[in-house]
Automatic annotation (TrEMBL):
It is an enzyme of class 2 (transferase). It comes from Thinocorus orbignyianus. It catalyses: n isopentenyl diphosphate + (2E,6E)-farnesyl diphosphate = a di-trans,poly-cis-polyprenyl diphosphate + n diphosphate. Belongs to the UPP synthase family. Its cofactor is Mg(2+). The active dehydrodolichyl diphosphate synthase complex is a heterotetramer composed of a dimer of heterodimer of DHDDS and NUS1. Interacts with NPC2. This is Dehydrodolichyl diphosphate synthase complex subunit NUS1. Keywords: Angiogenesis, Developmental protein, Differentiation, Endoplasmic reticulum, Glycoprotein, Lipid metabolism, Magnesium, Membrane, Receptor, Transferase, Transmembrane, Transmembrane helix. With DHDDS, forms the dehydrodolichyl diphosphate synthase (DDS) complex, an essential component of the dolichol monophosphate (Dol-P) biosynthetic machinery. Both subunits contribute to enzymatic activity, i.e. condensation of multiple copies of isopentenyl pyrophosphate (IPP) to farnesyl pyrophosphate (FPP) to produce dehydrodolichyl diphosphate (Dedol-PP), a precursor of dolichol phosphate which is utilized as a sugar carrier in protein glycosylation in the endoplasmic reticulum (ER). Synthesizes long-chain polyprenols, mostly of C95 and C100 chain length. The keyword Transferase applies. Pathway: Lipid metabolism; Protein modification; protein glycosylation. It is found in: Endoplasmic reticulum membrane. Its EC number is 2.5.1.87.
Length: 208
């Protein structure tokens, strides 16, 4: 427990928002819960969980139960104040306790969310509440519901053999560092922390 917290402090930089993207057909609730709890333990503030079939989102209560179980076993924290926000829902469920916020996403929170944001902007223009010249990056960011209150991901861990993020937040990952790992099944903390070390050591040129 103490090691995980100290590990986070040893890194030159830590992602503020990490995406956990599963491209495998059979997602593991236990292994994903471990990854989320490790993110909490090292001090990552925002975590997004995504699989291209939307299995985690459809069964988010099962994932939350597994996270709660592992949090109690691994971290021993009081579990009353951790804010879990689900995309496209107005209210957050108070489930766990840590200085982290989790969103469970599915493909509908990617391209479909961009289409919905564009439709909403067009409606505002038709109602003369905005003009088409006002559309810019910040306006579109504010119209997107999938990451409302979340910064863009700094780091994405992509699990599986597919060389694609399969629709994970296409608008938000233009400057994101992506680390590919063979599988999330039976993943070890050492593999997880190795990816964090890779991110901490990389030089991000922001398109320059």
């Amino acid at each position: 427990r103490q090691r995980w917290r100290s590990d986070g402090r040893t890194l030159q930089k830590l992602p503020v928002h990490m995406g956990l993207v599963v491209t495998e057909e059979e997602p593991s609730y236990a292994d994903m819960a471990s990854l989320v709890v490790w993110c909490m333990a090292v001090g990552i503030s925002y975590v997004s969980v995504y699989d291209h079939n939307g299995i985690f989102k459809r069964n988010n209560s099962r994932l939350m139960d597994e996270i709660l179980k592992q949090q109690q076993e691994l971290l021993g924290l009081d579990c009353s104040k951790y804010t879990v926000g689900f995309a496209n829902q107005d209210k957050a469920d108070q489930v766990l306790n840590c200085q982290s916020t989790l969103k469970v996403l599915s493909p509908e929170d990617g391209k479909a969310d961009i289409v919905k944001a564009a439709q909403n902007f067009c409606q505002l223009v038709s109602q003369q509440q905005r003009t088409y010249t006002e559309l810019d990056v910040n306006v579109l960011d504010n119209l997107l519901s999938s990451t409302n209150g979340f910064p863009d991901p700094d780091l994405v861990l992509k699990f599986g053999p597919v060389d694609s993020t399969l629709g994970f937040l296409p608008w938000h990952i233009r400057l994101t560092e992506i680390v590919s790992l063979p599988s999330h099944l039976n993943i070890s903390y050492e593999d997880f922390f190795s990816a964090l070390r890779h991110y901490a050591a990389c030089e991000q040129r922001w398109g320059k």
